[in-house]
Design goal:
Shape: elongated
Strand content: 35-45%
Number of domains: 2
Structural class: alpha+beta
Number of strands: 15
Number of helices: 2
Radius of gyration: 25 Å
Amino acid sequence: MFLNGSFVEVNARQLSDGGLLIRLDDKSHLTYAKEDVSSTRVMIDGKTCMIEKENDPTKLRAPSPGKLVRFVVEDGDHIEANQPFAEIEVMKMYMSLVASEAGHVRFIAQPGSVVNPGDLIGILTLDDPSRVKHAVPFDGQLPKVEKKGTSDTINNIFLSQFLLSIFLSFSYSRSYSQFQNKFILLFRLQADPRTDSSGL
């Protein structure tokens, strides 16, 4: 991994359940990530952290999937902070959408349209443009990691997970041919990590 002239060696392997097994500084970490409208939820070794996305109050977006029922103000009207500007129907319930800042609104979506999380509904011209806070690019460097001896920890954890899945699938299916094929693929994977592991 290269960043601002610094370099850190990271080994990563995609797991069958969508996670990533990452080895950094001779230690293995099991990670998962899930993205939604306002943030990304990252789980590392069972601990969860939220990474908030850049919040731009000038963009009025749908917070959840639903149907845009109506606007409660006219296009071009001035609205105050925390004032509702539209209603959407979510699972047969009505939800009011409110502006986080004051300004003049211009609508883009049409009433009756289906919206998904993050879809742009309108643009808000702020009374105070300085209220927009932009993310600042990281200009630092990655921490130095002392390169240690080679470790098979990440491969051992990865192979252990698949060994477990193999034995479980065999116990349920009682299919010897399936069991045999999985083991052959497993040993090929151990010999060459580039082997396609989708069959496991």
